Amino acid sequence: xxxxxxxxxxxxxxxxxxxxxxxxxxxxxxxxxxxxxxxxxxxxxxxxxxxxxxxxxxxxxxxxxxxxxxxxxxxxxxxxxxxxxxxxxxxxxxxxxxxxxxxxxxxxxxxxxxxxxxxxxxxxxxxxxxxxxxxxxxxxxxxxxxxxxxxxxxxxxxxxxxxxxxxxxxxxxxxxxxxxxxxxxxxxxxxxxxxxxxxxxxxxxxxxxxxxxxxxxxxxxxxxxxxxxxxxxxxxxxxxxxxxxxxxxxxxxxxxxxxxxxxxxxxxxxxxxxxxxxxxxxxxxxxxxxxxxxxxxxxxxxxxxxxxxxxxxxxxxxxxxxxxxxxxxxxxxxxxxxxxxxxxxxxxxxxxxxxxxxxxxxxxxxxxxxxxxxxxxxxxxxxxxxxxxxxxxxxxxxxxxxxxxxxxxxxxxxxxxxxxxxxxxxxxxxxxxxxxxxxxxxxxxxxxxxxxxxxxxxxxxxxxx
Length: 465
Known about the structure:
TPR repeats lie at residues 98-131, 132-165, 234-267, 268-301, 302-335. It contains 28 helices and 2 strands. The protein is mostly helical.
């Protein structure tokens, strides 16, 4: 038996959940059902949303809005074919319903047809009086297509509709940043703040733009205004601390980082920044204490382990540094940064076999920096494996074909191997490619740079230039 809503004065959601626990069936009007379904969808309770849709369509079988919510769930669950069939039927009933085009656009978007989704959303715009949500969807589609200019324009429209829409405001600034238009972002935020002078979010974003432009005094003022607007805004204190670091005001920076810890639970990032400040102040005991606090708070934060490792490397305590980089590798053996640091430490300890292995791991995991190829080839030379060193440099040359460091090191290694033919060929190639960088060869191989053999090659190339 269906009960009228006035028999159960509870709010729709509470009443609906009460109904699910009993054998009674309560009656809801279609708008109540829409509110209930939206509530569950917004909170990720899809199974409850589906139950509400099923019951609602029994009570209101002709409601297009409820049928569209049913379609929305189908699209969410990637049941595209069934969703499109329902949309075809609904379009015959109401061809001017913008939600039909929005759901078709969602299907296109999920199929990575973003241009098609945009065309459907533009059609929805023509039919809708409330275009706020559609511009937001358009902005996201343009983001998927890396069209940051048009994405920005649509998110700006969302902000103009609702200046409290901080999600769209963040997206506007994200687009400015991706376009590297920091000046444009600063102008936009200042204009926004003229209308909303106590918006801590906008002040915070403005401070970050000033920071990116190295306008540290202006950034500091912006973060101060963010704090005035909301004295519990942790992000503003943290960013203010970073600015104070740049200005060399390490004690004040520490105070701001400590404020973030007082307001909310401590974070590894705050401990790390405090440690760096104390290291700058040459208070090494406190620096070490906070670095240890960093990895205690978050053992998976690579920056924490690297900070401890660098701390001991700077003190030339390479055995301690090796201990901590190995701890880091035990946590994450897939980090090329860890392996590269491990290689450098083992080099200092003259553990050349371990250094060679560490460089190989770093490269296998995607570290292709020039320094890595050069240092790895040097380690192979220390191990008296010239062919391996040449092979390493040949790999590096694929990434840095114009590098004088690589191109002049190759003939030097051939000379070390007493292979004069290949040494001559590669030295001539290096000189032709970059004669002015011959000083690199002199620096790396002083014992060969002034020999008659080398000078004859250099002079012969010089005459042809």
